[in-house]
Amino acid sequence: MSLPGLALALLLAADPAPSASESHLVAGAEAFRTGSYDRALVEFRVAEALGSSEASWYAAAALLKLGRAEDSVEAFALADRASRSSGDALLEVYRGEACYAVQLYLCADRWFESAASRAGPRLAPQLQTVRSAIRDALRPEQLPPAIDRLLGRATELAGARPALAAAYADEAVALAARSPLRHREAEATSLATRLAGPRQKGAR
Amino acid sequence: MTAALLLLLAASDPCTAPPPPVGGSANEAAIYLQVGDAERARGNLGAAREAYRAALARSPDSVDARRRLEEVCAAGNDSFQAGVDALDAGHPAEALKAFAGARGRGNDHAIDLLEGIARYQLGQDGEAIPRLESARSDPALAESASFFLGLIALRRGDGDRASRLFDQAGRAMGLEDSARQLARVAQQEGHLVFSALAELVYDTNVALRPDGAPTTLPGPDGSVGLTLVALARPWGTPGPYARVEGQFSKQFTLSALDLIGGAAALGYRLLGPTGSLTGEYAYTLQALDGRGYLADHRVFVGGSLLTGMFLWGFAYAAHFETYRWEVFSDQSGVRQVLELDAGLLPGAGIRITAGYAGTWDAARVDPLSYLEHGPILDTAWARGPLSVGVRGAIAWRNYRAPDPNYGGVTREDTRWGASTWVDLGIGARWSVRGTVRLLRVDSNIPDLNSTEWVFIGSVAWTGAVL
Predict the structure, then answer these.
(1) A36–B11 CB contact, under 8 Å
(2) Three-class secondary structure of residue B141 per DSSP
(3) How does pLDDT run across A105-116, given as a tens digit for each residue?
């Protein structure tokens, strides 16, 4: 799973005069490749501060690798708001994993589906397996308590971390649409609309 | 499991080597400091250390960078890290002291989880539950917290709740195998548990016919069997329990060996975080071919203790046996069995157990009384719903007195036993198993040498009703 970082490093290493932010991107990618995710995160954050929009996506991936799945979901959402989609299938897998880890199953499924269409022969079957597991997990009787949990968490985060709260609210909206009695759908939609942040043109 | 969580939560420590100077602008050093501050505020001390170290490498004279690096590197002052280290080293009480000073830095849910684990390890289930429930409210920690709540429910004998919690834990990548296995165990840990075992058996030497004996003597035969068990644990575990069993076996050809049996047992099980102790009295009555054959009063004591990766076990049973058929009545007496073993649990689902077993059978007449002893080696591997095992044993059996039925020779046997099995769990309640067993007897009385192969296919169902 270190391929995005490696590809980035190779790409940037070919540039004869990388900018300041790019050299930190390369350093972050190299640290990511060797599994030094703390260092990778720091380098990506520095690159971000120096103006790299791509760095935000890689920082989100590093957060996932550090076991901070909720922070990763938030970082991906913020990266999404700040720049157009990365378009990288493996970053989409990371984003799906982050969603899955915090039980945002439809979010996970959406990114796994997107990645699966461009994934290689080894990854595609794994993604299909996870997507099947997600379908099994979303039994109708489990939807109302899941929606309650998501809305509770979204409300809790709405003030301090609106991008993360929006991810929970969006999931609640999607689950409510699937629940037999449209459990708390209006409330979820209202909260999601309120939390929806500005999106760049062309963003997913 | 705990080690895996600790690996996940523990941060690497870049404080051990001084940062080598790196070219870069003062502006870059300032950005590293800002990134370090942000990560520190989020509770990610590992990234904060990396950032401060990078700042110091670019600005070696920066007092700010050095001070902040020293602050986050002071492991002794980092209560969270100290707690993680203590838990990792197997010192949960020490970890609790450290975690007490680590709250209020934005990672309280993680501390709740680790405190819950530490208290679970100390057997403080009542105090562990609220902390694990708190951790469960954090989606990133929910599965891990559910896993340990399930272990507590299991320890309390609430198999149904444990089963549900393991079901939740099983959704997390990396926890599926453990959770699935424990969900099966949970089905056996309710207040009232029923189980049924149906067997199809083929035995090449059902009556232990000696080698080279006339084929007119009973030889190979097959059978079907059914065993039903009901187990009641009104207060869960630890606590008292009662068990009732019924057993039925029908031979395909040798109807004289058709078996009907029943047993009732009363026992008490003590259970701690690393050990267990069980005491039990049981009465068994068996009938062959419709006639009462054997009555057995059994007293049993057994226990185990886990220290690191070793599981130490002992089991002792005294059988007060009465054979009701006149022809076998001389075999009646007291048979005592003792087994001591040590198991190695190296991880990856592997268990290797070595032990020594002895039997002292004081029958009514000396020529039928014997002392038997020998080593046992048992290896098992489990992964997900599949488990595989191999067991081998040698027993040297020496009878106490010459046997007039064999020309006044005192019988001495060597008994070789081996078995292997494959078990596949199907859901939480069903399992199928295939077993092959071999028993070879080599005696100083050649007429008693024999070989027996037994092939068993079985289906089992276990379910907690309450």
Answers:
(1) no
(2) coil
(3) 899 999 988 888
